[in-house]
Amino acid sequence: MNKVAKAVALASILGAATLANAGTVGPQNFNVTVNLTSSCSLTAAPTDVAFTYTSFGGAATATPSNFTVKCTNLRPYTLALDATSGTVIGLNYTIALSSAAATGTGVDQAFQITGNMVAGQSGNCAGASCTGTDVRTLTITY
């Protein structure tokens, strides 16, 4: 037998021995781990609660304040105002949230702050018309 034929025969025998000794390993399990930090964001800030009132007039309803919140899906959260009443230029008002609690859906959720003013108030104004502002705070806890 020539040298080339001997080399091919030896390679064939070694290859067959390697295949004969090859085995399989059963399925191996492993974990996929995800660490999620839930969050909430105010995606549209509250607009102003605006009253138009005439001294000694009837009860007034404010133009509502609209805003949106987006929280992680299934994450519960609460909404709170720092105060639900106040006085601006001598006129007493109340405000309220459309909802004080919700559960996140992963998309924007719409809310409103509404306001009311009782009838018959005088107010404090030296001119023909006056404007005043009271700053309120909305807190989202999650």
Terminal Cα span: 84 Å
Name the helix and strand elements from N-terminus to C-terminus, one letter apiece.
HEEEEEEEEE
Please state the structural category.
alpha+beta
Largest sheet: 6 strands, antiparallel
* Strands, total number: 9
Radius of gyration: 36 Å
Percent range of helical residues: 10-25%
Low-confidence regions: 4-14
Helix count from the secondary structure assignment = 1
Q: Which outline best applies?
A: rod-shaped
Descriptive overview:
- The structure is a single chain.
- The chain is of the alpha+beta class.
- The chain has a domain at 40-123 and 137-141.
- The protein is 13% helix and 33% strand.
- It is built from one helix and nine strands, in the order αβββββββββ.
- The strands form two sheets. Strands 1, 2, 3, 5, 6 and 8 form a six-stranded antiparallel β-sheet that branches. Strands 7-4-9 form a three-stranded antiparallel β-sheet, with no helix packed on it.
- The longest helix is centred in the N-terminal third of the chain and has 19 residues, at 3-21.
- The chain is rod-shaped, with a radius of gyration of 36 Å.
- The relative contact order is 0.22.
- Residues 4-14 have low confidence and may be disordered.
